[in-house]
From TrEMBL:
Residues 39-51 have a biased composition (Polar residues). Residues 1-51 are annotated as: Disordered. Residues 392-500 form the Pyridine nucleotide-disulphide oxidoreductase dimerisation domain. Signal peptide: none annotated. Keywords: Disulfide bond, FAD, Flavoprotein, NADP, Oxidoreductase, Redox-active center. The keyword Oxidoreductase applies. Residues 55-372 form the FAD/NAD(P)-binding domain. It holds the Pfam family Pyr_redox_dim. PROSITE patterns: PYRIDINE_REDOX_1 (PS00076). Residues 1-23 have a biased composition (Basic and acidic residues). This is Dihydrolipoyl dehydrogenase.
Length: 511
């Protein structure tokens, strides 16, 4: 464990209890609290070094991990600098969660309009104006970002430094040519799209998850390399905007860390909308130019060619640790460049923490924000919270949506659990039938020896909302039997969860 003796110099932070949490984008960047302003004026601890400003804390990266942490530290009286080289809000707000989900909402409207006759409604010809879809997305992002920027600006004890930062020593950084230092440094620099080593890629125009949200004309045929979270969400979105879509996925399944029954059900839903999914297809060469691309993929050892008009690469993310000068510190990296941390998010260098995507592991906004909570509680409140054993949910925003929490069946078996499992098909849920949204599968995995819920998958309309029933249960350490008799409103999609719980039974592993 890194040395934490720096904590001796902390301000007396226990005088003001900040119990509010960062539940929404508006609230992650809260206006300054006058009471804590006063506290800080009297309790700043950073000594001057004579080489530039010295802070109690430097937060490096103004994304979903960094901004909430910086606000919290300031509220507790830390003289804090937040360094951001691009826009506040980071990937999630500017290039990730919010813009994708805004455009996916437009795609959903188009889809329902195309199929409206199924509900007995005639709409006439449906036309997607992608430029207007993109404008709507840009406007929402702009307005949320403006709120975040306003709140940072109003927090007069938070110093926002716009620039690219680089370490020049332990807890010493250079930004905009000026050296600054701190008692504690929190690295939250996030990740960027990975460009895989595919022959010819440097000479062929290609889209990534950022540029694919800037197109103003619907691509006639989009070939997507990668069938992970980004690949599946964009595949369905563009199919619904009117593109032909081919997904080339090197793994045997889409979303390969999910159980086979779940990912197969998702694949069937995507294929039913006309998306071509090719599994075990490793893209190895690309050729072409504007409006015409050809991808050569090795499929089960045989080369096959997939032509299209546009190419999108969705083959994972790489951490923004290169060029950060970490060699001037004791901060260790793993083999992929992610920062090595212990369960308390401490790096291998004393007084330096890492949070959010850059620490590897689950890369979600809610885990980034929870990292900020854990660090804050440990560093400021002297607690000993850990990321180990926290209940982590996530969503994949296809239709049906996948809401997930905890272990999959495969992971639970690999961990040595004997399992009780319950499944229920969405098509049997009355409300799903009434809504005409019958694709999907619900699955609950419990420890056969204790009946405690180990994980769940809700692949269903609103699955990412519905899975929170299991998140709550797991957080409270509930048994599946505790939920079985819980009354669910009729008719709702949530009744399906109850049915899955009702069918939980002991299941031998396949091996
Ligand atoms: C297309 C897409 C869709 C996504 N959808 C979802 C979703 O629906 N739900 C979900 O939970 N997650 C989603 N994610 C993941 C989510 O965006 C990330 O988990 C989250 O943004 C991580 O936050 P972070 O603060 O760790 O990093 P970021 O948000 O990436 O923030 C890091 C910040 O650090 C800055 N920075 C980097 N290097 C430096 C430097 N040297 N000096 C100064 N500043 C620097 C960057 O400019 C950036 O603003 C999605 C991601 C993508 C790409
Ligand atoms: N809804 C969400 O929460 C959400 C949405 C989007 C992104 N994200 C985050 O962003 C991360 C990155 O997403 P992603 O989809 O880029 O990465 P990913 O790692 O989830 O998936 C990439 C896929 O690309 C495939 N691949 C790699 N090289 C290939 C090649 N040459 N040919 C064919 N297939 C190839 C891999 O098999 C892999 O399954 C996610 O892990 C997630 O943390 C989250």
């Amino acid at each position: 464990m890194p040395d934490q003796t720096n904590d001796r110099t902390q301000p007396d932070v226990n005088k003001i209890e900040d119990t509010r949490d960062q539940a929404t984008f508006e609230s992650i960047a809260r206006p300054s609290d006058p009471a804590s302003d006063a506290l800080q004026e009297t309790q700043g601890t950073a000594p001057s070094t004579g080489i530039g400003t010295h802070y109690d804390a430097i937060v490096l990266g103004g994304g979903m991990a960094g901004v909430p942490l910086a606000h919290r530290l300031v509220y507790k009286g830390f003289k804090t600098a937040l360094i951001e080289r691009a826009e506040l809000g980071g990937t999630c707000l500017n290039r990730g969660c919010i813009p994708t989900k805004t455009m996916i909402a437009s795609a959903r409207v188009a889809h329902q309009a195309y199929l409206s006759e199924q509900w007995g409604v005639e709409t006439g010809e449906v036309r997607v104006h992608l430029g207007r879809v993109v404008d709507r997305k840009d406007e929402l992002v702009r307005s949320i970002r403006a709120g975040s920027e306003r709140n940072v600006a109003q927090n007069k004890n938070l110093t926002l430094i716009r620039g690219n930062a680089r370490f020049v020593g332990e807890r010493r950084l250079v930004v905009n040519g000026e050296e600054i230092s701190a008692e504690r440094v929190f690295i939250a620099v996030g990740t960027r799209n990975r460009v895989p080593g595919i022959e010819g890629l440097e000479g062929v125009p290609f889209l990534d998850s950022t540029t694919a949200m800037e197109l103003r004309v619907v691509p006639p045929h989009l070939v997507i390399v990668g069938g992970g979270h980004i690949g599946v969400e964009f595949a369905q979105m563009y199919r619904r905007f009117g593109s032909d879509v081919t997904v080339l996925q090197s793994a045997p399944y889409l979303l390969p860390s999910e159980d086979e029954d779940i990912t197969t059900a998702l694949r069937e839903a995507l294929e039913a909308e006309g998306i071509e999914v090719v599994a075990r297809a490793r893209a190895r060469r690309v050729e072409g130019g504007e409006g015409q691309v050809r991808v050569t993929a090795s499929v089960d050892g045989e080369d096959r060619i997939y032509p299209g008009t546009h190419l999108m690469i969705a083959a994972g993310r790489v951490p923004n640790t290169d060029g950060l000068g970490l060699e001037a510190t004791g901060v260790g990296l793993d083999g992929h460049g992610f920062i090595r941390i212990n369960d308390c998010l401490e790096t291998t260098a004393p007084g330096i923490w890492a949070l959010g995507d850059v620490r590897g592991g689950p890369m979600f906004t809610h885990t980034a924000r929870d990292d900020a909570r854990i660090i804050y509680q440990n560093v400021v409140k002297g607690q000993d919270l850990s990321i180990k054993d926290r209940v982590v949910p996530w969503g994949v925003f296809t239709d049906p949506q996948l809401g997930r929490v905890g272990l999959s069946e495969r992971e639970a078996r690999a961990a040595g659990f004997k399992l009780k499992i319950g499944t229920y098909e969405a098509r049997k849920v009355a409300k799903a039938r009434a809504n005409g949204e019958t694709r999907g599968l619900i699955k609950v995995v419990a420890d056969a020896s204790t009946d405690r819920i180990l994980g769940a998958a809700v692949l269903m309309a609103e699955g990412a909302e519905l899975v929170h029933e299991f998140v709550t249960a797991m957080q409270l350490g509930a048994r599946y039997t505790d939920l079985q008799d819980m009354i669910h409103i009729h008719p709702t999609l949530a009744e399906g969860l109850n049915n899955a719980l009702g069918g939980v039974h002991y299941e031998e592993g396949l091996e």
